[in-house]
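User: My collaborator sent over this chain with a note saying "see what the structure looks like." That's all I know about it. Can you take a look?
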Amino acid sequence: MKKIVALALSLVLALSLLAGCKSNNQDGENIETGKNNKKEFDSSKEIVVVTREEGSGTRGAFVELTGIEEKDGNGNKVDKTTKEAITQMKTDTVLTTVAGDEYAIGYVSTGSLQDTIKALSIDGIKPTTENIKNGSYKIARPFNVATKHDVSEITHDFIDYIMSKEGQEVVSQSYIAIDDNAEPYKGSKPAGKIVVAGSSSVTPVMEKLREAYLEINPNAEIEIQQSDSSAGIKAATDGTCDIGMASRALKDSEITGLQNMEIALDGIAVIINPNNTLTDISLENVKKVFTGEFTNWSDIK
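Assistant: Without extra context I'll predict from the sequence alone. Here is the result:
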């Protein structure tokens, strides 16, 4: 008898749960009542700041362009990113962290944007290719490659390909080409190996350039080592790689002994969780969030 009663209760519970599930659509709206049961974003909650590691070209460009980097009394540049920020070592972990926390805010290359997060407009300007190219979107930076002045034949040929019509078309699939009127590739397709190292932001487009180049020059071997911009420039300087990648302009202290070249333009998008109701933020408030002056979402007007 007890088993029959227990079974009956279990059946009733299951039916009630099923009815509850069916009464709500994917957006949280109750089909019967028309009311939305989806949890509303609580703007009184604390902002979870997500940043990149020191040495990251994305971080270097971001703190400079937003004014987070300031000069101290001795004229030295100081990164004022809040100590409470969560530091992530790669672009994909920033995306994952923000996608998994509705109160998080971070920043990534516009070429890395996914539908798991939402990119904010800055002072009313969206981070689109057109706005980055015409200069109206202010958080943008160049992608650079750096080499010694004397490079191998294969290294020279690969760079020629990157800056050719074909190479810039590869760049434009995800980023913004430097030269829309580049000449077609006319290289000699030599054999040899190239080691490319540096920025995790530049790495995805460099991998696509490698793939496209190897299709026309199967005699080449290209190894890509992902790290950050500072490490890439140091490797090029030390000669441990042939091409260093940097997702920012080179510093004066890094230029000695190297030649550098812009291969693409890229914006840096300020990203939030899709559940967040914010759509636009001022450049001034971006600074206040990432320096810790603003600590709650309700601070952002």
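A starting point for your reply to your collaborator: The first helix runs from residue 2 to 22.
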